[in-house]
Amino acid sequence: MSGIIIYRSSYGSTKQYADWLSEATGFPVYDQKTAAIPWDEAELIVLGCPIVANKAFLSAWIQKQWDRMRDKRVFLFTTSGADPATAPVDQWIAAGLPADLLSQIQCFPLPGRFEFDKLNGVHKLMLRIGAVVLRSDDIKHQMSHPVDGVSRDRLAPLIAAIQTEATTA
Ligand SMILES: Cc1cc2nc3c(=O)[nH]c(=O)nc-3n(C[C@H](O)[C@H](O)[C@H](O)COP(=O)(O)O)c2cc1C
Q: Which of 21, 73, 116, 125 could form a disulfide with 143 if both were Cys (CB 3.0 to 4.6 A apart)?
């Protein structure tokens, strides 16, 4: 089955997973921000993006492009500062996408990498404002505690699901 991987990444963790996934599946990788995406060549689409402000960053874009994906097998993996083992990342993804569309996407929340000191000025400002406006102790905690949960092993369930789709097609 032909497939493509489309990702969006500011600091490299989502890109790292996309590249590992490409090695495992043989699917080519496209940067959502810059690449022309060959929609017609793929029967299976893997989307990858970070969680930003409690939503999958590509939520609006996925809805806009849905007509190009609706007849295909679609997977979405996310990266986040919060650990999906303890945080309700599935709910954050669901909050950004209509239910009928979400029902056609297999979602895989993965742990990402977050280090406040390495963010660009705009992102630092967004988080500082977010911490105050939302009175969020979580954001304040994240600002002073770097996390790095990026690990190749975490892709195993996604790779298995892709292989299942490929063999039952
Ligand atoms: C502006 C901004 C907002 C973020 N909001 C969240 C959030 O709401 N929840 C969360 O768990 N992580 C959040 N993060 C952390 C990112 O999801 C995490 O760092 C991710 O791994 C980044 O992916 P990338 O390295 O591909 O850019 C945020 C990061 C930035 C820069």
A: 116
For the domain 3-112+149-168, what is the CATH code? 3.40.50.360
Give the whole-angstrom CA distance, residue 142 versus residue 108.
22
pLDDT at 169: 65
Regarding the beta carbon of 10 and ligand 1, being less than 6 Å apart is answered yes
DSSP code for 28: -
Tokens standing for residue 1: 């089955």
Pairwise CA distance, residues 113 & 67, whole Å: 32
Below-50 pLDDT ranges, the chain: none
9 close to 39: Cβ distance less than 8 angstroms: no
Name which residue sits closest to atom 19 of ligand 1, judged by CA. Answer: 114
Interatomic CA distance for residues 102 and 79, integer angstroms: 17
Domain boundaries, the chain: 3-112+149-168, 114-147
Neighbours of 148 (CB within 10 A): 12
Cα(42) to centroid of ligand 1, in Å?
Answer: 28
What is the reported pTM? 0.96
